[in-house]
Amino acid sequence: AQTVTQSQPEMSVQEAETVTLSCTYDTSENNYYLFWYKQPPSRQMILVIRQEAYKQQNATENRFSVNFQKAAKSFSLKISDSQLGDTAMYFCAFMQAGTALIFGKGTTLSVSS
Amino acid sequence: DAGVTQSPTHLIKTRGQQVTLRCSPKSGHDTVSWYQQALGQGPQFIFQYYEEEERQRGNFPDRFSGHQFPNYSSELNVNALLLGDSALYLCASSLVGRDIENYGYTFGSGTRLTVV
């Protein structure tokens, strides 16, 4: 069975700094998709960034980028120029085509001024 | 364009009772997935409905059942509630065969269920 591990329960960063959230996963499949979701106190899960496993290039969305290491089964999220609004719980998630999303336990990120 | 709507927002039930949670998917979506999120944990997949049938199921007991209606809305039913069923229940909608993997799912804000 596929598993997703987030080893950092909590992270803190100052505004404008850069922070990296870690995620590892376990699968024997070759084709799959990886996501980072943000869950603010409003509880709604918001898609931050996605990565297709068959793509070598790391995905980037504005201040958010990933470091996808397929051989190492690692998928970290880098947030540049952190803002107060980035304060939230962040979940790494894995999915194969046609199957459900599998989430990690999450990392609580606190951004302070 | 309305997103995913869940009702009620909060609910308190007594151990042993039954509860029904409701979800209206995003306009244009035809698939609904339900997740249970315990406090401080990641969401756990309960099941997914498509074409009014349960398409996939996670590791949850039969006390958890669901239904999907012709308008794609869905209900999650939990019987014989246990204290451990206290959690945030999230509904997510998607469109089968159409960029699921590219765009992931659209989530609702959840129903907070407390069992006392």
What topology does this entry show?
The complex is a heterodimer of chains A (113) and B (116).
Chain A: E1 3-5, E2 10-14, E3 19-21, E4 24-26, E5 33-39, E6 46-52, E7 60-61, E8 64-69, E9 74-79, E10 88-95, E11 102-103, E12 107-112
Parallel strand pairs in A: 2-12
Antiparallel strand pairs in A: 1-4, 3-9, 5-6, 5-10, 7-8, 8-9, 10-11, 10-12
Chain B: E1 5-7, E2 10-13, E3 19-24, E4 31-37, E5 44-50, E6 53-57, E7 64-68, E8 74-78, E9 87-94, H1 100-103, E10 106-107, E11 111-115
Parallel strand pairs in B: 2-11
Antiparallel strand pairs in B: 1-3, 3-8, 4-5, 4-9, 5-6, 7-8, 9-10, 9-11
Structural write-up:
- The complex is a heterodimer of chains A (113) and B (116).
- Chain A is mostly beta strands.
- Chain A has no helices and twelve strands.
- In chain A, the strands form three sheets. In chain A, strands 2, 5, 6, 10, 11 and 12 form a six-stranded mixed beta sheet that branches.
- Chain A is globular and about 40 Å long.
- Chain A starts with a strand and ends with a strand.
- The mean pLDDT of chain A is 93.
- Chain B has one helix and eleven strands, in the order E-E-E-E-E-E-E-E-E-H-E-E.
- In chain B, a hairpin with a 6-residue loop joins strand 4 (31-37) and strand 5 (44-50).
- Chain B is globular and about 40 Å long.
- Classes of the chains: A mainly beta (113), B mainly beta (116).
- Chains A and B meet through strand 5, strand 6, strand 10 and strand 11 of A and strand 5, strand 9 and helix 1 of B.
